[in-house]
Amino acid sequence: MSPRSLTCFGALAALALGCAPAGPSVPAGLPGPLWSAVPAAVVDSTPRPSAATSGATQRAGALRLGPNDLLEITVFEAPELNRSVRVSGAGQISLPLLGEVSASGLTPRELEVALEATLRQRYIRDPHVSVEVSEMQSHAVSVVGAVTRPGVFQIRESRPLLELIALAGGLAPNAGESVIVARAPSVGAGEASAIEPGGGGGGGGAAAESMTISLRALLESGDQRHNVLVHPGDMVKVTPAGLVYVVGEVRKPGAFPLVRGPSLTVLQAIALGEGLGPKAARGRTIIIRTGPAGERVELPVNLGDVLAGRAVDVALQPQDVVFVPSSAAKAVTMGVVDALVRMVTLKGVF
């Protein structure tokens, strides 16, 4: 080898050795060259995770890690450190050499950067760490109310409202007029302004908010503002339809939902009860309605006039009671009506 070649080789060796970080001695049980001055060529040729293997990280990259999430930690320069770890209830993960590391509240990419910085400071000159989320347990969305399969669903990223309802099996037959999205604290702040706000918003940025969305607008309108994004930690509640009660001299007394669509009228409600009984006093039918202050209001209805077109077929409201008395009864007390309502309610429950 020529003197010039020896001089170049010595310079390169000195440069490589000069890059070795000052730190603790080689950890027991791990190969020395890995923790000392690794030649730059070796570091540069370390394979990076492919798009296929890092797909979960890319999908979950915008999410914050939380308790019970299961992570796959890969240190490409040191396979001995690869671990499947679950975030503890305190928000930490336990790794060899590094001990307890805080993970809760970080994105997977932020945790990668933190682990690389710690390894670089203590052990490896140029570490490359991959954090993949194999199980996301801290980002649950609850879908409750009038859906086919209420439950808790894990989502890796924000999803449109209609997708969450579809995950719950779609709307139940007794679905009402609206769906409520209750925001997790400090998530989606300001988004509720485009929709009708619920009762909980308006406070500081960390306060929980809720929004009420018309199901009819969500399903029939092309306006995507109604198909809001549901974030991990939110709760979706599809409100059940209000009930009207038809009791007294009808063939099938019962409680019937006010499903979405045109208003339910008195005659339609009686039709749901399979029509009037043989002793029905058509002229003395009453609607018992609960007022805003909880007071009861009695609205007399002459079914004969309604059937003849001489009177308006009154539209019913949630919790209305349509009572058709018997022609044999001289008078009926409110206690009797209450008892009839309780009977049809218990029949629906059991």
* Mean residue pLDDT: 75
Biggest sheet details:
6 strands, mixed
Share in β-strands: 15-25%
Backbone CA Rg: 34 Å
- What low-confidence regions span 5 or more consecutive residues with pLDDT below 50? 1-61, 187-194, 197-206
Q: Could you estimate the helical fraction of the residues in percent?
A: 25-40%
CATH level-3 fold name of the largest domain: Outer membrane lipoprotein wza fold like
Q: Report the order of strands and helices.
A: HHHHEEEEHEEEEHEEEHEEEEHEEHEH
Count of helical segments?
Answer: 10
Q: Characterize the overall form.
A: rod-shaped
CATH class of the largest domain: Alpha Beta
Counted up, domains total: 3
Beta-strand segment tally: 18
Look at the helices and sheets and give the structural class: alpha+beta
CATH architecture of the largest domain: Roll
CATH superfamily of the largest domain: Outer membrane lipoprotein wza domain like
Task: Give the termini separation.
Answer: 97 Å
Topology at a glance:
Elements: H1 3-18, H2 32-35, H3 40-44, H4 55-60, E1 70-75, E2 83-86, E3 92-95, E4 99-102, H5 108-122, E5 129-135, E6 140-145, E7 151-154, E8 159-160, H6 161-167, E9 175-182, E10 196-197, E11 210-214, H7 215-220, E12 229-230, E13 235-240, E14 243-248, E15 254-257, H8 266-272, E16 285-290, E17 296-301, H9 303-308, E18 321-324, H10 334-349
Parallel strand pairs: 6-13, 14-18
Antiparallel strand pairs: 1-2, 1-5, 3-4, 6-7, 8-12, 9-11, 9-13, 10-11, 14-15, 16-17, 16-18
